[in-house]
């Protein structure tokens, strides 16, 4: 692996700020950590950066679960997990063969597409249909978002915005959104660890850098917990969508 200790003090400061933003995103504005993803990919080689970031995300997931564990909607999670598993496998295969440029461009395009679809759905109410048709549509949506979420979270730790778009489109309010998202990513990110180790993305060096950065996640999570009660639902949704678009653009244009 690239000598990740060859970073400058300014580089470490940027990584620390990105780790703080991970904590904030996990307890306040899910999807904002795409900015953290871009910072890590800018300071470290893009492929290796995903292995360094994953344990930091898992620590943030633990803090989010401790904060919002009672607000998860488990039927939604069980509906998503099979498709997500397929997406993780596809992402692992893609990551084994694709270069950094292909990874960044693919994820950036997917994030922007998801944001566009969500904005379109919010402006255009869906036509009423039968209950059976609605059920089929809900299953198809869960399947498509699940595969995309699994794929993007495996190749670039960028599943947050995809799942944010799904949960917003499903009508989740703030606490249900954050609780469901917290459990989802704790389970999915933990399941990704063996794949990342197998690909050589997590090793002793990356874990030592994680140990130096993980402490910055805690103040970010505390700031997020304080801020979320002061953000109304409409602003919350706008911030999630804006973070998704920003993260997608950063990946696509870098």
From TrEMBL:
Signal peptide segment? none
By what name is this protein known? Answer: Probable membrane transporter protein
Q: Which UniProt keywords apply?
A: Cell membrane, Membrane, Transmembrane, Transmembrane helix, Transport
Similarity comment: family membership: Belongs to the 4-toluene sulfonate uptake permease (TSUP) (TC 2.A.102) family.
| InterPro entries (UniProt xref) | TM_pro_TauE-like, TSUP
Q: Which residues form a coiled coil?
A: none
- Domain of life of the organism encoding this protein: Bacteria
Checking PANTHER family in the record gives: MEMBRANE TRANSPORTER PROTEIN YDHB-RELATED (PTHR30269:SF23), TRANSMEMBRANE PROTEIN YFCA (PTHR30269)
Question: According to its record, how does it sit in the membrane?
Answer: Multi-pass membrane protein
Membrane-crossing ranges are: 51-68, 80-97, 103-120, 207-228, 235-253
Where in the cell?
Cell membrane
Q: Does the UniProt entry include the keyword Iron?
A: no
């Amino acid at each position: 692996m690239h000598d990740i200790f060859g970073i400058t003090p300014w580089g470490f400061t940027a990584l620390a700020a990105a780790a703080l933003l991970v904590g904030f995103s996990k307890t306040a504005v899910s999807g904002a950590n795409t900015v953290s993803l871009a910072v890590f990919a800018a300071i470290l080689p893009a492929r290796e950066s995903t292995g360094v970031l994953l344990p930091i995300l898992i620590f943030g997931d633990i803090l989010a679960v401790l904060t919002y564990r009672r607000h998860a909607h488990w039927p939604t999670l069980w509906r998503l997990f099979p498709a997500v598993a397929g997406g993780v496998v596809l992402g692992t295969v893609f990551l084994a063969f694709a270069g950094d440029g292909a990874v960044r461009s693919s994820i950036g395009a997917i994030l922007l597409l998801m944001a566009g679809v969500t904005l379109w759905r919010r402006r255009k109410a869906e036509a009423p249909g039968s209950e059976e048709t609605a059920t089929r549509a809900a299953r198809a949506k869960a399947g498509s978002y699940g595969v995309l979420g699994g794929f993007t979270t495996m190749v670039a730790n960028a599943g947050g915005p995809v799942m944010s778009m799904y949960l917003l489109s499903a009508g989740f309010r703030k606490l249900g959104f954050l609780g469901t998202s917290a459990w989802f990513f704790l389970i999915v990110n933990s399941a990704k660890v063996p794949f990342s180790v197998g690909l050589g993305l997590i090793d002793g060096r990356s874990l030592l850098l994680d140990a130096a950065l993980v402490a910055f996640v805690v103040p970010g999570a505390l700031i997020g917990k304080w801020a979320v009660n002061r953000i109304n639902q409409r602003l919350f949704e706008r911030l999630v969508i804006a973070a998704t678009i920003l993260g997608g653009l950063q990946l696509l244009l870098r």
